[in-house]
Amino acid sequence: MELSISNGDRFTLKAAQKNESSILSRLKRSRCTAKLYRDLWRDRKIIETITAHHLGRIDPSTCVVQDTVTWMKGQFNVCIPIYVHEGDGSISKKIFRCPLAHKVGERYSPGAVEENMRAEAGAYAWIEENGPDIPTPRLHAFGFSPDLQVE
To answer: Does position 34 have pLDDT exceeding 70, yes or no?
Structure first.
């Protein structure tokens, strides 16, 4: 029997016994990531509506979440490509970035995700103000909770 970890690694019992890293914690994180992906895919219409709102679109169907195989997973975030159909017939690409709460310690330190997002948003603002020649992605909006969003 083999265990599959989210980064594609596969482990047999024999290989896991030889490995010094914690296979159980990696397997748990893998399951948390898979659940987050399922939840985000299930809520893709909400993501499209949020994206349309922040882009000033009336029709959310102009924003289309791309299939999960195109999603980019880093150590602490998942980036979801969204294609935006422009009025002139062209398509632009936006990224909906979502933190992996189980990787930033939200369970053990409530508020860790918000603290991380505040720091990143602050860094964007500082770079825009102090380093206008530094290329950065355009940050349209960010949100901390259902009640607090910043545009």
So the answer is: yes
Rounded CA gap, 33 and 73, in Å?
A: 9
| Paired residues of 64 in beta bridges | 83
Count the residues in the chain: 151
- What is the rounded distance in angstroms from the CA atom of residue 63 to the CA atom of residue 47? 9
- Adjacent-strand bridge partners of 84: 63, 92
Q: Which of 94, 53, 51, 100 is nearest to 74 (CA)?
A: 100
Distance of CA 133 to the CA centre of its chain: 26
Q: What is the pLDDT of residue 69?
A: 95
Report in angstroms the alpha-carbon separations of 43 from 37, 59, 116.
10, 17, 23
* Whether pTM exceeds 0.85: no
Q: CA 18, CA 58: separation in Å to the nearest integer?
A: 56
Query: In the structure encoding, which two tokens stand for residue 20, read together?
Result: 């010094």
Characterize the bridge pairing of strands 91-99 and 77-85: antiparallel
Task: Kindly give, in sequence order, each residue whose CB lies less than 8 Å from that of residue 80, ignoring residues fewer than 6 positions away.
Answer: 40, 47, 65, 66, 71, 95, 96, 97, 98
